[in-house]
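quick one: S-adenosylmethionine bound model?
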Amino acid sequence: MFLNSANSGLIQLTDQEFKELVNFVHTKYGINLIKKRVLIEGRLSQTLRQKGLTSFRQYIDLLEADRTGTEMTHFLNKITTNHSYFARENEHFEYLSDTVLPYMERTRHNYDLRIWSAGCSAGQEAYNMAMTIDQYFGLHKSRWDTTILATDISMDVLQRAKKAIYPASNLTNISALWKQKYFHSLGNGTYQVCDKIRKEVVFKPLNLMEPFHFVKPFDIIFCRNVMIYFDAPTTDQLIQKFYDVTAPGGYLFIGHSEVINKEATKYHYIRPAIYQRKE
Ligand SMILES: C[S@@+](CC[C@H](N)C(=O)[O-])C[C@H]1O[C@@H](n2cnc3c(N)ncnc32)[C@H](O)[C@@H]1O
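yep, here:
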C-alpha cells in the first residue's frame, strides 16, 4: 500500500536519458551513478513535478543550460549522501593527536600547519580536527596557525557547516568533557560548536574533479567517505592530485571502507586508511 502510493508519482528515466545523466555527472563530478537509476527516479521525480517538467529529458536540458549552478547544486544535494557525525572513525583523531601533531610540532618550525577537510559535509570532521588540535596544543595553540580549509560541492551542507548547529544524535561519540568544552546546548536538543573552534575553520565550495590551485602544500588532508562515489580510475587520479598538493612528510586520511591502489600511489602506507608522503 505504502510502496504503491509512493511509487505512483515516479517519473521514469529512459535508457538514453539515464546514459546521458550518468556521463554528464561522471565527467563533471566524478560521481558514478551507474547503479543509481532507481535512486535518481525516486529522489528527483518530485523536483521535476514541482518544476512542471514531465520527463528527465527536460530536466537534463535544464541542468545543462543552468549557468548559475543552482540546479546542479540541488541535483547533487538530492543524489549524494552527506551523512556525517562527530568522532566518526575516531582512531583517525587519536592518530592525529598521538602521532601526526607531535611530528608536525617537531618538524614545522614556522608554526604554520596547512590542513584540509575535503568533502567536509556539514563540518563535523573539520570541527573535530580543530578540537583535537586545540586539545593537543593547549596553551601553546596561540603560537600556531592551524586554520582548517573545509570544502564540499554541496552548498546546502556548507551553509549548515557555517552555522555549526547539530542534533544531539551527532554528538553521541563525544565525551561529556568535550561536549562541555567545545559545544553549547541551544536547549532544543541541538548543540552549537563554540566560537573559538568555529573561527578555526574556513568553508569553501570546491569540486574535487577540477584542477587544484593552492599556493602552499598541505600537511594534513582528510578525504574520508567521499571516494565511495567515484570509480577506480577517478579515485586514482584524485589520489595523485592529493599527493601533488601534500607537503613532504604530510598525511592523507581516507575512509576505512575506501581503498587506495597501493601499486599506483606514491604515498607511503602507514596503517589502514592513513598514508604519508615521504619526507
Ligand atoms: C558522506 S560525506 C563525508 C563527510 C565526512 N568527510 C565524513 O567522513 O564524515 C561525503 C561528502 O562528499 C561530497 N562530495 C561528493 N562528490 C564531491 C566532489 N566531486 N567534490 C567535492 N565534494 C564532493 C558530498 O557532497 C558529501 O558532503
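Residues 91-107 form the longest helix (17 residues).
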